[in-house]
Design goal:
alpha+beta, two-stranded antiparallel ribbon, 5 strands, 30% helix, globular, flagellum, cilium
Length: 73
Amino acid sequence: MISLTRLNGEGFWFNAIYIERIQSNPDTTITTTHGKRFVVKEQEEIVIKKMKHFYREIGLLRAVNKAGDSIEE
């Protein structure tokens, strides 16, 4: 799980495995694999760094890299 902040300042925990897309327009919007959207205060780059850290913690980033896919670190 990663810690994020809604635009109203409310913090919440988000399961990064369900993130399908992140875009800034100009607010950072996260779209889940189920089609739900969340707008957060954190910049896109920060969310991506948090995702990568979470993936490393659970061993997912290492598994993806070994499979031959490239994820920039």
